[in-house]
Design a protein that fits this description.
- The protein contains nine helices and eleven strands.
- By secondary structure, it is an alpha/beta fold.
- The strands form two sheets. An eight-stranded mixed sheet has the order 4-7-6-5-8-9-11-10. Strands 1-2-3 form a three-stranded antiparallel sheet, with no helix packed on it.
- Strand 8, helix 5 and strand 9 form a beta-alpha-beta unit.
- The longest helix has 14 residues.
- The chain is globular and about 60 Å long.
Length: about 270
């Protein structure tokens, strides 16, 4: 399913490499993933989330605090998958938490699926390949997906950058895109600790060129975080980690308990003709 980032021809998986008909080769790492990110696509030596961020996200997600979101996402995707084999792309797979739980859920229901995941972070893809060993993972850019046109049944994206034109290109004519966005009250309790004057997230129209919205679901619940490590892991995996005043970070470091909101929108899009 992967395509060569150099010539766009299909890649064939051999024992230790992916190879295209033009002789371009990409080694399969010991963890099972492949790096398809070309040098001219990198904005830095090691783009994407660093090991600290991947470690924090892994610890927090393993706590089960976002399992409710994952369950709702899985239910949404299950309702869109046919009984036949489906090809699903996790666009911005991170450490593989959502991919692994989705694969397990769909296979438990007797559905035949292929899960692909791509992310800019080599650290994330390495972790995802270990967590979801039945999936196929590659280091690649969301803005230049290593897939041929009209080959993916469903793309989903959780809090990662969006490239609707690429999602449109790789989706089949009757394909779907499912996106998770933060809603207005998401992590407001955390922001109350970090900032003197916290504000709600701005709501969006969610409209995307090339797609029509077929479903909107809001998932909201309260999280009780009962250890400093869980609290700090959540903080580290958010953009607030880089934007918080020192005084706010110091207040957070003293907490052993935090109650905060989890507030998400799950938006389903259908690819339009054209």
């Amino acid at each position: 399913m992967f395509c060569c980032p150099n010539c766009k021809q299909p890649l064939t998986r051999l024992e230790h490499v992916y190879r295209c008909e033009n002789g371009h080769c990409f080694d399969i790492a010991s963890g099972g993933y492949v790096n398809l990110l070309l040098a001219n696509q990198k904005s830095s030596k090691n783009p994407g989330d660093n090991p600290t961020m991947i470690g924090a996200r892994t610890y927090f997600l393993n706590s089960g605090s976002y399992s409710c979101l994952s369950d709702h996402l899985n239910h949404t995707i299950d309702s869109l998958c046919s009984a036949n084999s489906s090809v699903i792309l996790d666009a911005g797979c991170g450490e593989g938490y959502y991919a692994q739980r989705l694969y397990q859920q769909l296979t438990n229901l007797g559905k035949s699926v292929q899960i692909f995941g791509i992310d800019l972070s080599k650290n994330g893809v390495k972790s995802a390949s270990k967590r979801c060993s039945s999936g196929y993972f590659a280091v690649a850019s969301l803005f230049d997906l290593p897939f041929a046109d009209n080959t993916i049944d469903l793309v989903y994206n959780v809090f990662s950058p969006l490239c609707p034109t690429e999602f449109f290109r790789v989706l089949k004519p009757d394909g779907y895109f499912v996106a998770v966005y933060p809603a207005a009250r998401h992590l407001f309790g955390l922001k109350e600790v970090l900032y003197e004057n916290p504000y709600e997230n701005a709501e969006k129209s969610f409209e995307l060129d090339g797609f029509q919205i077929t479903d909107k679901k809001r998932v909201s619940y309260t999280m009780d975080l009962s250890s400093q490590q869980t609290i700090y892991s959540l903080y580290t995996m958010t953009p607030y980690f880089y934007k918080t005043p020192l005084s706010g970070a110091e207040r957070l470091a003293k907490l052993e308990y935090l109650q905060t909101e989890a507030d998400f929108w799950i938006i389903t899009y259908e690819k339009t003709a054209g």
